[in-house]
Amino acid sequence: MNTPDIFSPYDRCFVGKYRIKGVYQTGKRRMIRDNTEKEDELTLKREYDNKYDEFAVAVYDRYGNKIGYLEKNVNEETAFYMDNGYECIAVVSDIDKNSATVGIMVDVFCIADNESMKRLKAGFDEHLRETIYN
Fold it and tell me: Which of 82, 105, 107, 132 is the most exposed place for a label (fewest CB within 10 A)?
């Protein structure tokens, strides 16, 4: 008997490749260096009360420790999807454990089927147009 995949690859829609910022500021470089590996799945959470960034998306490791944020200049799309009720995750695509800031690159995915993702992307494009022209 074939059982359906609970989480098929088609449910993950690629959003982009981004750098995690703020790792150095968290004061947890050693913990991050020891607990984070390439291909780890990381949790993304919106921080609506972040006074520095209205689109702040915090990044948490597999143990629930905050390790930083998606870069400020590229986080708006991910924040938009999350604000519309969709879960987004990050997967470590590259990590430089020798860097003073523990350089981490992630691939961000939105958990949505293809049709929902098309609607979300259209909604985000409209959001950008409104932002630019208003």
Answer: 132
